[in-house]
Amino acid sequence: IVSFILFASLFLRRREFMRPLLLKLQSMADRRAVTIILSLAFLLRLGWILWSPHVPPAPITEDAQIWRHARNLASGVGFISLSGEYTAYRPIGYPLFLSILIRAFGPHLMVAELVNVLVGVLNVFFIYLISKKLESGLFGAWVAFVYTLYPTAIMSTKLLMDEHLFILLWLIGIYLLISDYQKPSYKKFLLASLMVGVSAVFR
Predict the structure, then answer these.
(1) Residue 177 and residue 68 in contact, taking contact as beta carbons nearer than 8 Å
(2) CA distance 44 to 63
(3) Whole-number CA gyration radius for the chain
(4) How far is CA 65 from the centre of its chain?
(5) Which distant-in-sequence residues (6+ apart) come within 8 Å of 76 by Cβ?
(6) DSSP string spanning the chain?
(7) Most buried residue, 76, 80, 108, 140, by most Cβ within 10 Å?
């Protein structure tokens, strides 16, 4: 994500043909631009999970293991391997999160996919906030827009992956650390530490 932001910065600032579009975007209200970008991110990700013919979890894949762990946790069996033994082979964070969804809404993959959509939109939003902190609102809007169209970020919404919440927690942590550096506050530092620490349980 960090490399992506830096690359986007260098690319956009060195392309003269982008200047008219950049000026037009700059003339828009910051809030309106972000609303449009987040709406586009939501529609693209929602459209993908509704249109994609892929039906997770595919056999013998990571998302199949995650879904099995989530259902075991939801039913009270515990975090166990295929042999029935308790295991710490993979992080428990994301399966535990999914188990809460299963208890609340039942074992419906669509619920998990819809949550992935919301998490994906939040990722776009925090990428905007981080980029705005580092450069400007215009730069933040452009980086968020480019990431909104990033194919991997869209298509992975259909999959059950640890990375969804891991990336979100990391982005929140990075945003808080940058904010703390610019305007020191022990609360921001502690919260950033908490976000990064919790993310280790997810990935």
Answers:
(1) no
(2) 22
(3) 19
(4) 20
(5) none
(6) -HHHHHHHHHHHHT-GGGHHHHHHHHHS-HHHHHHHHHHHHHHHHHHHHHH----SSPTTSHHHHHHHHHHHHHHT--SB-TTS-B--SS-SHHHHHHHHHHHHH-S-HHHHHHHHHHHHHHHHHHHHHHHHHHT-HHHHHHHHHHHHT-HHHHHGGGS--THHHHHHHHHHHHHHHHHHHHS--HHHHHHHHHHHHHHTTT-
(7) 140
Nearest to 83 by CA among 94, 97, 68, 99: 68
Planar angle of CA 190, 193, 197, nearest 5 degrees? 140
Mean pLDDT of 157-171: 90
What is the end-to-end Cα distance of the chain in Å, rounded?
16
- The answer to whether residues 30 and 200 touch, using CB atoms and an 8 Å cutoff, is no
Pair 105, 111: CB distance under 8 Å? yes
pLDDT tens for 50-99 read 998 877 666 677 788 888 888 888 888 887 776 677 777 788 888 889 99
pLDDT of residue 135: 79
**Distance between CA atoms of residues 147 and 127, nearest Å:** 8
